[in-house]
Design goal:
The chain is mainly α. Helices cover 62% and strands 0% of the residues. It has two helices and no strands. The radius of gyration is 19 Å and the shape is flat.
Length: 69
């Protein structure tokens, strides 16, 4: 008979860690929404969807842009 065992952990972050996690989540959400809007625009114009490599190149451009500090 095989026995399964599980472990449960709880994170207790400090105030600064909470702020950093929220900032990271906000950045991820921003990038996802910007990429989604780009793909939707391309779809509406009848163009092909961008692949992973092309989106990575766009991400680099967004990161270096003055519009997105």
């Amino acid at each position: 008979m095989q026995r399964l065992q599980a472990f449960k952990y709880e994170l207790i972050p400090t105030g600064e860690q909470v702020r950093n996690m929220r900032r990271f989540a906000g950045s991820c959400r921003f990038v996802f929404n910007k990429a989604l809007a780009l793909q939707k625009e391309r779809h509406e114009r009848g163009e092909k969807m961008l692949g992973h490599a092309a989106l990575c190149k766009r991400l680099t451009g967004w990161r270096r842009s003055d519009d997105t500090p």
